[in-house]
Amino acid sequence: MQLGSKGFYLDRVYQVEGGRLLAWVFLAFCGVLLSLGVVYLSPLKILGLSAGIILFGASLFRPELGILGFIVLSSTILDLTKLPYVSVGMGSLHVPDMLLLFLLSVIPLRILIHRIRLVKSPLSITLLLFFIGSFISIFTSLRLGGKPEFISIYFRAACYYLLFFAVTNLVQDKKQLRLLAAGLIFLAFGVSIAAVLQALVGPSLRLIPGRVETLSTLAEEVRGINRILPPGQTLVFAMSIVLGCLIVLDKPNAKHMAYYLIFGFLAAGNILAFSRSTWISICVSMLILFILASRKQEMKILRIFIFALSLAVIIVLSVKIADTGIYRYITSSYSRAASLFSGKMKHSGTLTTRYKEIRYAVKSIKKHPVMGIGLGNTYRPGIWKKDKGYYAHNGYIWILLKTGLVGFIPFLFFLLIAIIQGFRNFFTIKDNFLKTLALGASLAIIAICISSQVNPLFMQDSSIPVIAILAGFIDVAGRIYKKEYGNLN
After folding, report:
1. Contact 442, 451 (CB under 8 A)
2. Whose CB among 63, 198, 238, 252 lies 3.0–4.6 Å from 444's, allowing a Cys bridge?
């Protein structure tokens, strides 16, 4: 059975000593599980168990499919809290947690069977140090009175950064990397379609989890306009930047028409989020792309911009004449963006709340600068309705506050090294796809860093897997090029 040439695929498992035994053991284990399921479980649960076996089997023989499966579960349109789980100790293991553990367990299995080395890089070292700092913060939190149920929630989120190691150690060739990148873009496309459908049907019929709420700008509600923020919003946000790079820098081919269609839906998903920080971050990333582009590519960007602007004018005029609700979404987007330049912005409740958070956080950081107050610990009284005092809108302050300098410094270096390495790969790699993917991932991380000043993407369980994969793209692109073409020049 030929499923791939270089990845950890089924044909390679059978070609190595012990591989046949491994396959039979896995199949036997699956058979036992299904047999027990038929006896003790309902038909619906048996179906879920079968789907789980297929997913875990795919993860063993095609790891990139397992990584995509993890994103489906954690960062698209599924509610992570509603997924099946197993109680363990002071917390629980959800299906994505089990899949992550399985993917990580495949790494030593590959090392034993294929006699390969564990991938080591500055990125992996800094991320490992951050994870150690996060682990230490558990004991800090318990010492300072943190509640175990909240500690487990936030430590689970921190553990999702370990997906980076699954990407760097299990994605071994360009074919796997292409499939993983294409899969993420396709999943982002699906999330955007779901967001558009949710906007069309309104909040009375919930199609997706996350936030579906009436838009409020400068404390004024805009009736009939819904803000759609599904769990996969960061995936849409990041993949729109990666896809933008592919459209501008990749060689024209038959796929480009599909690229434009998908990019249009991703743009709609970003608009429906009504997130000003996301809009600013995307604009900054696209400006950097324009600066780095060649003269020919700059002209391509300008042509695309002129075409998009002309199309937007036609659409606006059409929906205005037709007097549809779409026109209200367009005007609301304009008002939302214009509010950034309003004198009322600095006195808005949004910024006032964040200022209060920062003041409380600074006091706690001064008291606990090195070790922090621990994951899942409170640092202030509640400020808004249902606020428990755990949350911080600034992602940097969140990590510094919770993990202290022990976790914060390695994390900053992780981001900085990823960005620098992404740009280095872009300038030194000759392979067009690899260099474009590296730049797209680097620009997406920059955008996430900008947005995280007002939105804690760094510690959101639906955003962390996306950050981990973006960093993995950068690391894997350079390593694949080095393996196939020699050292980076």
Report:
1. no
2. 238
